[in-house]
């Protein structure tokens, strides 16, 4: 059931879609042609040894994909593979989905972003996110508390540093500059190279409504994961109500091209089972919260219970077919083409497809999405 807008009798889904698409030209005025209001990118996820996806990225560029994205968790980082692919391409935009804010200070991320943006000729789309307490506190050794305030402060500092209008100072609780109490010798500084763009687009990886609302307030886009296009208005309508024109809702969508639907569902359920069951603590799992908001609380709890008890195959089996089919694009290309209408009718403005591993698959998806 769709939520209704406060100031309109039209469903929130439609109000938001029209707002974010009205005059859409990309994040803060970026260019690029669209067909039927959907843009298309390729999400490579984590780099895994000994992989080199250069051939796939070059194929995506030739086929007109607008962007390619990389990720990080507690293994490979997101920026190094992106620089690798950027050196081999000339047009495709380069996105991080996401770099974790606990992995780098705001200054380190600002410097890396400016450098990569220069070297790529202004193609960077910087996605940032907080990750969860297991990774932040267990891997990076930084506190998880107040993630929204921490993110706001982080993004504010990135923009101060890129604009170079004054030395970077902050009285914030999380990233004070100069550091305090310290030695008292810290000196406020500015980047010693001018950015190619002072307004590098910033995206937030967000799953909770408050974090999505923060993205709509301070960022150029929202990186959405495990999204049912029919339920975005119901789950996130209030959070997205303040999104400005041009705000990019970029949803990562697992695409499995196959004539064997049971096999396709099994592939999709493997990733869902892992994230819902194991990517988070028993008492704090953002992915479980997402599927709960979509109406799968009982199934989600069962998936987590099985996964954390070491019964991973059973956890995968417990993922409802309906959920896997809703958040992914599965089946023959004709079925995928038909189900794309659900995404066109949603607030989503960019599809970041993950899963294709050949140029023919990329071409089939491109033709289905862009026509």
List the helices and strands and how they pair.
Blueprint: H1 12-21, E1 39-46, H2 54-63, E2 67-71, H3 79-86, E3 93-96, E4 99-100, H4 106-119, E5 124-129, H5 133-138, H6 147-163, E6 202-205, H7 209-218, E7 221-225, H8 232-240, E8 248-257, H9 261-278, H10 286-293, H11 297-308, H12 312-317, H13 321-327, E9 329-331, H14 333-344, E10 350-354, H15 359-370
Parallel strand pairs: 1-2, 1-10, 2-3, 3-5, 4-5, 5-6, 6-7, 7-8, 8-9, 8-10
Helix pairs in contact: 1-8, 2-15, 4-6, 6-7, 7-8, 9-11, 10-11, 14-15
Structure commentary:
The chain has 371 residues and is α/β, with parallel strands linked by helices. It has two domains: 12-254 and 343-370, TIM Barrel (Alpha-Beta Barrel), CATH 3.20.20; 259-331, no CATH class. It contains 15 helices and ten strands. Strands 1-2-3-5-6-7-8-10 form an eight-stranded parallel barrel, surrounded by seven helices. Helix 6 runs parallel beside helix 7 (209-218), helix 7 packs across helix 8 (232-240) and helix 14 (333-344) crosses helix 15. The chain starts with 11 loop residues before the first helix and ends with a helix. The relative contact order is 0.15.
């Amino acid at each position: 059931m769709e939520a209704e807008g406060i100031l309109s009798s039209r469903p929130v889904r439609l109000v938001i879609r029209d707002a974010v698409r009205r005059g859409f030209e990309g994040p803060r005025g970026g260019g690029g042609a669209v067909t039927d209001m959907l843009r298309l990118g390729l999400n490579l996820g984590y780099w895994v040894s000994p992989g080199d996806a250069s051939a796939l990225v070059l194929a995506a560029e030739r086929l007109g994909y607008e962007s390619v994205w990389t990720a990080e968790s507690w293994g490979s980082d997101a920026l190094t593979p992106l620089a690798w692919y950027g050196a081999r391409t000339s047009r495709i935009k380069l996105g991080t989905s996401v770099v974790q804010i606990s992995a780098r200070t705001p200054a380190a991320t600002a410097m890396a972003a400016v450098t990569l943006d220069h070297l790529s000729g202004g193609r960077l789309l910087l996605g940032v996110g907080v990750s969860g307490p297991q990774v932040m506190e267990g891997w990076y050794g930084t506190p998880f508390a107040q993630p929204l305030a921490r993110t706001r402060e982080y993004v504010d500092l990135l923009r101060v540093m890129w604009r170079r209008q004054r030395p970077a100072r902050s009285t914030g609780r999380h990233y004070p500059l100069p550091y305090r109490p310290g030695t008292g010798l810290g000196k406020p500084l500015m980047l010693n190279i001018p950015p190619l763009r002072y307004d590098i687009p910033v995206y937030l990886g967000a799953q909770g409504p408050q974090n999505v609302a923060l993205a709509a307030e301070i960022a150029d886009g929202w990186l959405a994961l495990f999204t049912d296009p029919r339920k975005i208005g119901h789950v996130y309508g209030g959070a997205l109500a303040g999104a400005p024109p041009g705000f990019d809702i970029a949803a990562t969508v697992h695409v499995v091209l196959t004539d064997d639907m049971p096999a396709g569902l099994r592939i999709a359920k493997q990733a869902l089972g892992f994230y819902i069951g194991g990517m988070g603590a028993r008492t704090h799992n953002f992915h479980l919260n997402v599927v709960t908001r979509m109406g799968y609380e009982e199934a989600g709890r069962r998936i987590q219970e099985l996964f954390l008890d070491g019964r991973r195959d059973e956890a995968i089996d417990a993922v409802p077919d309906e959920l896997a089919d809703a958040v992914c694009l599965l089946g023959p290309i004709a079925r995928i083409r038909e189900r794309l209408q659900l995404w066109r009718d949603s607030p989503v403005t960019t599809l970041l497809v993950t899963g294709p591993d050949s140029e023919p698959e990329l071409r089939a998806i491109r033709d289905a999405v862009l026509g």
